Amino acid sequence: MELAGPPVAEAVYAELRAQLEKLPFVPHLRVVRLGEDPASVSYVRLKDRQAKKLGLSSQVDVFPESMRQEELLEHIRRLNADPEVDGILVQSPTPRHVDFNRVLETIDPDKDVDGLTPTNAGRLWMGLEALESCTPAGIMRLLKHYGVSPAGKEVVIVNRSNLVGKPLAAMMLRENATVTLAHSKTQELPSITRRAEILVTAVGRASFITPEMVRPGAVVVDVSVNRVGQNEAGRDILVGDCAPGVAEVASALTPVPGGVGPMTVAMLLANTVKAAMRRRGKY
């Protein structure tokens, strides 16, 4: 079975449109981007376009890559104080001279639509209400849509980042899964991934997960998008972490592209609406 993201994302958007019709205001998303990194430019354009298509107010603040860290933090503080701004997202990766953790610590947790501030990350792990990290939240919604319950299952996540692995582990634990976080230093990794009834990979290396590493019948969620060249038309060839043969072993697999990616954007916009409603006393 293919765990396609677009139908699930569209279901999320339908729910959000129904919510937006009842609101006497339009939620406002502010995205901050430093520099002209092609991937960041593309991602930000996609988020901005989808926000406006949904009916949200969205603005992208673009600054030079050389912008001083304190100038960036001061801009974030102004957005924190602006009552018209409901959601703030600083596109990562930021330039090397910018401490992204300082950026996250500066963003108002009530406007943290990326779900990455220490406050929201901590609330998630404590089982409290929070704005949740978008990619893991999208994975959970994707699995629910296709009737895959983590309850009682062994889940292996090959990633330990603050963006994917750690928040996803908290969400899986909340759903009563037994969770293993694996990573580049994990010994005997194939023996661990073969235990997984649900295997999530976000390594960023094409063909890293081979069929021999997958338990027959497992559900596999491939988060990574890896560029492995260009086709004759000059377009990037995109693949995930899974080698082609994984589809023959797994019972279900997310495609790349068209799997988790659309869900990340959908959950960002869901967080924006949620943040706006909470801030304005409507949630």
TrEMBL record:
Keywords: Amino-acid biosynthesis, Histidine biosynthesis, Hydrolase, Methionine biosynthesis, Multifunctional enzyme, NADP, One-carbon metabolism, Oxidoreductase, Purine biosynthesis
Protein name in the entry: Bifunctional protein FolD
Lineage: Bacteria, Thermotogati, Deinococcota, Deinococci, Thermales
One GO cellular component term: cytosol
Domain Tetrahydrofolate dehydrogenase/cyclohydrolase NAD(P)-binding positions: 133-279
Coiled-coil stretches: none
Positions of NADP(+) binding: 159-161, 225
Single GO biological process annotation from the record: purine nucleotide biosynthetic process
Catalytic activity: (6R)-5,10-methenyltetrahydrofolate + H2O = (6R)-10-formyltetrahydrofolate + H(+); (6R)-5,10-methylene-5,6,7,8-tetrahydrofolate + NADP(+) = (6R)-5,10-methenyltetrahydrofolate + NADPH
